[in-house]
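User: Some background: our group keeps a shared notebook of sequences we're curious about, and every so often someone picks one and asks for a predicted structure to add to the entry. Today it's my turn. The entry only has the sequence so far, pasted here. Could you supply the structure so I can complete it?
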Amino acid sequence: MTKTTENPENVAGTPAETSDKPEGNPQPQAGNRQVEVDDSRAVTSYANFCRVTGTPEELIIDFGLNSQPFGVPAEPVTINQRLVTNYYTAKRLLHALHLTIQRHETAFGVLETDVQKRVVPGARQQAAPKQ
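Assistant: Of course. Here's the predicted structure to add to the notebook entry:
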C-alpha cells in the first residue's frame, strides 16, 4: 500500500496524516512536496519490552516480548526486532512519540506506566471463584 504524506517533516519523525489517494499526479500545495511511503514490505510485530543502548554515533533499540511482565522473568526475553539509527533521527522519533502520546492522553486520560498504581485493590480476590 502506498501512502502519500503532504509534509516532508512528517516523514522525518512527526505524526503524519496519510491518505489512500489514488495514484496519479498529485498537485502539491505551495511550499509542500509529496513524499510517497511504500509500506507493502513492512513487518508488523508486537513488543512489550524494549532495551536502549548505543554508541557515540548510533542508538540501538531492541524490541521483544516479555511473557512475564510482572517481576523478573524466569526465562530470557526474546528480542524480535532491532532498530539502529542515528541520534538525529532518534530525536525526531522521540518528538513524534511525545506528540502522539500527548494527543492520546488528551483524548483518553493519562497513561500510568507504573503497573502497581494501575492495580485495583481487591480486584484479584473478587475475580477468583469462591470454593
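Suggested note for the entry: Strands lie at 2-5, 18-19, 35-38, 49-54, 58-65, 78-86. DSSP finds four helices and six strands in the chain.
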